[in-house]
C-alpha cells in the first residue's frame, strides 16, 4: 500500500515553525525516507541519481617493478560533458598528486608519474590508467574521479607491488635514523620505506625482528613472530607499535621495501677487501650489489650462496633459500649478515649487480 501525505486542505493540521505545513514537510522528507528504505533492503534497482562509473571488479591491482600496470576505470554511460581526473593519494600526507586529466578525446599528464602514464582507451567508455615501467614509489592508493558538473563520482584502487621487506641499520649501530634519514637510507639501498601493509605481509611470511624501525606513514613498529622477553614480552605475536613518532627528533632503524630487479646478482669468490670487491665487480662490467639487490635476488631469483660477500654499504651478507647447518645455522630461509667488518679485512668474496 503506497504511503500518502495528507492534503494541504486537511482540517486541523498544524502549521510548523517558519510557516511550513505538515503536508509540505511530508512531501519534502518522503523521497529521503524511500531512499533509506530501499538502501536498507539492498535494492540494487534503486538509484537516487546518475551513476556513470562502474565499480571495479578488483580493487587491488598486483604488479612488479619494471612491469606495466593497468588501473581499471570504466564508464557505464557517457555524460554529455565530462572530465576524468586520475590522482595518487600520498601515504602519510593529507594530499593527492595529480597524474592525468582527460575529456575522453585528449589527455594531459602531470608530475613525474604523468610522463609514464597514459589512457588505455580500449573503447570509448574506457578511462583506465596505464602506468609503464612501474617503480617502487608507484605503489599506493589511486583515485579515478569523474567530473561532470552535476554529481562527481570516483572509484579508488590500490596498486600493490610484489616485493620483500628488509630491516636496515647503518654501520654505526642501531637506532641512528630519524624519519628522513631512514627514508634516504632505504633509497640508497635500492628500496623505499615500507608501508604498514607491506610489513604486515612480511610478518605473515616469516619476518621476525626485535629492533623497531620507521615505516612510510611515519609510525615506528617491529614484527614479532615468536614472542619472547627481549622482544616486548611473551604476549601474542604480531606487529608491535610505538605509534607515530617525531620525524626529526626520534631515532630508530628502518624497514625498507624492494621489488623485482631488471638485472641480476652474482657472487665472485675470493678473499677481498672492500676496495678489491669494487674492482672485481668493475672488471665484470658490474657494480657491488646493494642490500636491496641481494634481498630481491634472494626473493625472486632464489639466490642461494653459503659464502659471505661484500655489499656496497660495507656490510657482508649471504642469501640462503635452503637452510642447512653450515650456512648460518638458522632453520628458516633468509639473508644472513656478518655486520660491517673493517673495509681492509681481506676475508670475503663479493656480490655484484649487472643490468
TrEMBL record:
SUPFAM superfamilies: C-type lectin-like (SSF56436), Immunoglobulin (SSF48726). One of its GO terms (cellular component) is synapse. Keywords: Disulfide bond, Extracellular matrix, Hyaluronic acid, Immunoglobulin domain, Repeat, Secreted, Signal. Its main location: secreted. Disulfide bonds join 210-231, 306-327. PROSITE patterns: IG_LIKE, LINK_1, LINK_2. InterPro entries: C-type_lectin-like/link_sf (IPR016186), CTDL_fold (IPR016187), Hyaluronan_bind_Proteoglycan (IPR050691), Ig-like_dom (IPR007110), Ig-like_dom_sf (IPR036179), Ig-like_fold (IPR013783), Ig_sub (IPR003599), Ig_sub2 (IPR003598). It is found in: Secreted, Extracellular space, Extracellular matrix. One of its GO terms (biological process) is cell adhesion. Residues 50-158 form the Ig-like domain. One of its GO terms (molecular function) is hyaluronic acid binding. The keyword DNA repair does not apply. Residues 164-258, 261-354 form the Link domain. Belongs to the HAPLN family. Mediates a firm binding of versican V2 to hyaluronic acid. May play a pivotal role in the formation of the hyaluronan-associated matrix in the central nervous system (CNS) which facilitates neuronal conduction and general structural stabilization. Binds to hyaluronic acid. This is Hyaluronan and proteoglycan link protein 2.
Amino acid at each position: 500500500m503506497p504511503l500518502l501525505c495528507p492534503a494541504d486542505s486537511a482540517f486541523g493540521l498544524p502549521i510548523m515553525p517558519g510557516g511550513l505545513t505538515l503536508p509540505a514537510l511530508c512531501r519534502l522528507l518522503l523521497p529521503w525516507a524511500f531512499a533509506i528504505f530501499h538502501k536498507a533492503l539492498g535494492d540494487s534497482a534503486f538509484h537516487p541519481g546518475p551513476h556513470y562509473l562502474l565499480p571495479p571488479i578488483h580493487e587491488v591491482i598486483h604488479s612488479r617493478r619494471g612491469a606495466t600496470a593497468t588501473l581499471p576505470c570504466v564508464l557505464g554511460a557517457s555524460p554529455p560533458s565530462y572530465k576524468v581526473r586520475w590522482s595518487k593519494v600520498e601515504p602519510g600526507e593529507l594530499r593527492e598528486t595529480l597524474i592525468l586529466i582527460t575529456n575522453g578525446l585528449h589527455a594531459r599528464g602531470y608530475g613525474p608519474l604523468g610522463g609514464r602514464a597514459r589512457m588505455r582507451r580500449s573503447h570509448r567508455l574506457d578511462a583506465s590508467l596505464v602506468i609503464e615501467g612501474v617503480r617502487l614509489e608507484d605503489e599506493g592508493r589511486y583515485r579515478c574521479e569523474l567530473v561532470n558538473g552535476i554529481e562527481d563520482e570516483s572509484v579508488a584502487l590500490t596498486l600493490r607491488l610484489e616485493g620483500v621487506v628488509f630491516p636496515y641499520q647503518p654501520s654505526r649501530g642501531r637506532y641512528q635514523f630519524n624519519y628522513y634519514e631512514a627514508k634516504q637510507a632505504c633509497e640508497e639501498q635500492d628500496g623505499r620505506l615500507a608501508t604498514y601493509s607491506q610489513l604486515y605481509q612480511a610478518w605473515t611470511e616469516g619476518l621476525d625482528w626485535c629492533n623497531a624501525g620507521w615505516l612510510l606513514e611515519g609510525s615506528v613498529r617491529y614484527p614479532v613472530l615468536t614472542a619472547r622477553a627481549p622482544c616486548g614480552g611473551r604476549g601474542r605475536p604480531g606487529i608491535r607499535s610505538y605509534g607515530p613518532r617525531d620525524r626529526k627528533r626520534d631515532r630508530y632503524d628502518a624497514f625498507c621495501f624492494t621489488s623485482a630487479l631488471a638485472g641480476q646478482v652474482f657472487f665472485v669468490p675470493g678473499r677481498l677487501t672492500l676496495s678489491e670487491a669494487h674492482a672485481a665487480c668493475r672488471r665484470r662490467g658490474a657494480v657491488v650489489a646493494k642490500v636491496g639487490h641481494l634481498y630481491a635476488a634472494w626473493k625472486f631469483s632464489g639466490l642461494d650462496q653459503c659464502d659471505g660477500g661484500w655489499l656496497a654499504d660495507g656490510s657482508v651478507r649471504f642469501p640462503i633459500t635452503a637452510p642447512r647447518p653450515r650456512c648460518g645455522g638458522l632453520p628458516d630461509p633468509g639473508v644472513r649478515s656478518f655486520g660491517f667488518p673493517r673495509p681492509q679485512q681481506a676475508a670475503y668474496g663479493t656480490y655484484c649487480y649487472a643490468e
